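Components:
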Amino acid sequence: MGFDQFIGNRKIVGRIRTKLKQERFPHGLMFAGPEGVGRRTFALMVAKALNCPLQGPEDFCGDCTHCRRIQSGTHPDVQTVTVEEEATQIKIVQIRQLLSTLEMKPLEGRNKVFIIDPANLLNQESSNALLKGLEEPPDNSFFMLMAVNVHELLLTIRSRCQIYHFAPLTLDEIRSQGITDEFAVRWSQGSIGRARSADIAAIKAQRELVLDFIEAAVNAKDETLRDMLSASADLSRTRQDFSGHLTMMAAVLGDILYLTEGTPDNVICADIRPRLERLASSAPAERWVRVSEFLRVMENSLKGHINRQMLTDAMALVTAEISDDNPVKSR
Amino acid sequence: MKYQVIARKFRPQVFEDVIGQKPIVQTLQNAIRMNRIGHAYLFSGPRGVGKTTTARLLAKGLNCIQGPTISPCNQCPSCLEIASGQCMDVLEIDAASNTGVDNIRELRENARYAPSRDRFKIFIVDEVHMLSTSAFNALLKILEEPPSHVAFIMATTERHKLPATILSRCQQFVFRSISAAEIQAHLRSIADREGVKIDDRSLSYVVRASEGSMRDAQSLLDQIISFSGQEVVDEDVRDVLGFIPSEILDQTVDALAGRDSRALLNNIGIVIDQGLNIQQYVREFIGRIRDILLMRLDLDEKVLGSIEEKKALKERSAQFSEQDLIRYFDMLLKLESDLRFTAQPRFHLEVGFIKLAKVGHVRDIEEVLSSMRDGKIAVLPPPVASVKPAAASPKPAAPPSFKDSLTKRLQDKSPTTFVYAQKAERIEQIGERVEIQMPNDLYFSALDTREHRAALESAATEVVGRPVSVSLMKGQASPPRPAAPSAARPPATPETNAAMDTARQEPLVKKFLEVFRGDLAQVKPVKGE
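Structure:
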């Protein structure tokens, strides 16, 4: 075991290791980047290196009692603060609890490590409660904040951390992890977590649903439009599936644009290329851009409380306008 | 590990070291010198500009064994304990984690007792904006008339969250962002003291990325030092700050100039494969477009960079018209803010870039006119299909119709309602009522939901300026409407027709119509002729 096991983002690994080696380790770090590129794994690795008696602080062994307990989340000096069950945010009581242990010396290891994950779910009160502790923690205390999008965090929090942006992995790095299905590799978009957890059959079924919807909308005539609108109900049934559908829609529309703009190597759904090409050739790129832009409106509206079917209905209409000879458009 | 980050290690310990807040420091020093010390201070301002630092310095100045003094000794027990945060008489309270009224009651209780050793009992209340309403109110009386041995120093980044009753009881000091030159000079002195070699150009990158916050600047410098060691080279700095290599930006500009969406997509691919940050890419690209625009406007002196770089920019700027650049700039700014909050940044960046490549080039009107004057016939490139084919632009001169203003309002308020409202055959305001006629049953029933009606009603109310009701109608049952309001031009008579024909023969008018692909709408007799 050791840092060598970590896949991708070698630069960041190198920098953090230098810091560990030089004992210039900052007390506040933020790991930003997409889900599933290994930020959490890496934070735990750092926590191990800070506490492993055998190979620390430059590396860690992974086998000693410290490393093992850090891995299993039972080490008394490494705390992960996350959203409690049935809650949507990290609450101020959790931060107060953290702060109450901040002044204590490490119990068993050399350093105390606090991992806040995901930091963008700190609410207004809990972020502010963290500020003073995060700025000047006692010696031997370290914070690591995980965030997908740093813009969702308070400026005052960001300003107290050194921020590292994790990049998606390259397709080859994903392949090197034993992912054989080519669609899974491309679908992962550089997230090893996404590639591993992907239920390819389910995702392809979802893709089918989305493609049917888009095709129906593109080919809609006045008399079939009503059926299509009711079909959009299928897409919008549950909130959870819905954001998945939007992701899929982005992937499919992205692929169509890759085809219209002549960069077919980027296509994610390469296995159904002929079908995508038919769609791509049914309308000029500008129209597809317009549909794609509406997707952004949908994503945005979803943050508020909005009737999902209303959104897909509107999407259907926008898509239906796409081909010139469409009767809907001529109105 | 005894290592401390630069921001903590170099926290100013005397008033003279506070950077960029001269008026405030001077005022406080004078107050101490003249013994006119207030009992409640409020420090506000952006992150990392010295609020907490100044609060601690003020506390030291007041309680130093040689004080009250404008130059605390930093040697007496009071000064040392304040620096380490262990002083009995200077209580630094984290108002963000102790937000409740109970915490303030405790504070009030505490304030009644005389200081144990020092001159004053000082409460530094940091992040004070997070106190609850009742906590603020509990503070009011003691903040107005505290015992003579008590002083409050409050600090916050969000002054607007404080009640006016608190504000009016404090002496307020608004800290400003620190200027680039001041940050740069200070970083230089830190680098010297740390024995780090770094050139001015590299430092200027750090300064730019810090956006006026000293702590941000110091924390970036820290990252750079631990990355490169004692000798920092330019490349390392760009790398640590996640700057986009200049070649990629140049290639992107060239791709945009050639309206080559394929090359634009490839550039996005390169940025992602190199592990660079997409948002940073867009931000820097905006910066590059700005530089090119400035070059185009001959404002060379506003652009940073070496002579060669400026020359390259100047050459690139020749490929664009001013209008193009301004338009790109606007579109990119919107794209940048959209990207902040999307779960699909790559997709939306790609869509945004394709859109940039597809918008038609706008030719500089001066250019067209001058080529007309030269006798050359300038013909516009065929108009590129507008990105929004449905929103056929209304005749520029015509004032927006009621339908237009209503749908415009809807577009911002409820994008889905907007999609349907666009389909309406007729939207008219009749007194206190707005009639919306949909072309068929399908659209009628689609729009006839509670949500859509609510959106329509509130938008209509905003447009009209008083409460109105909305009635939806379906079918084409309504009698043919009288001539459209836009047909307000006078009826064609033989005279006007003749005038139109004459006008069409006029060479200048002819050329105008040809170049701008326009049409004659009306001919008016000039008054007095």
